[in-house]
Amino acid sequence: MASKIPESDQQLLLQNLDIFKIQGKDKRGRKILRISGKSFPARFLSVEVLKEYLEEHIFPRLAKKPFSLLYIHTGVQRTDNFPGISALRSIYDAIPIHVKDNLQSVYFLHPGLQSRLFLATFGRLLFGDGLYGKLRYLNRVDYLWEQVRRKEIEIPEFVYDHDEDLEYRPMTEYGLENDHPHPRVYAAHAVAIDSPSASIYSMRCFS
């Protein structure tokens, strides 16, 4: 991560963006640390400032009891939100051992193909078998509610929007669609024009 703004501004940025939030409980009654990947300003944040923020504001609240982590990967862009492999390792190494021991489950919402491949390649190297073994991929928000108490945690609206897009365009999840119009537009054409060419057009979202 490259720091391009003063440290004091970086600290304010972390507070205002609400990236790390302890909120709600899972079905086993464990508190949840929610992390919003889309909000993470990797290009403007130094590793040291981030570690200092976590050590002051987050880790002390997770030191005494078991907890779960919900990482929301929805809308993450590698160029904007990914801190880099060395930064991830440095941050993980800075987590106190008792906090690591208290972490029971990691719920990874909307992982996508690239993040799955990355973790399959580097997951154990970065985080060890212990943490990697706690990872649970959740492709849809509905699967999240099987693990956490629905009314106790706030999920951003853009996450639900992405979930809806995946229902209509499931191949987007695997990086095979990124520039087609919404398939519901195709459906409208198919209903309005009853012709073979219209039917072919309506199926473009699956090609």
TrEMBL record:
SMART domains: SEC14. It comes from the Eukaryota. InterPro entries: CRAL-TRIO_dom, CRAL-TRIO_dom_sf. Residues 13-162 form the CRAL-TRIO domain. It holds the Pfam family CRAL_TRIO_2. This is CRAL-TRIO domain-containing protein.
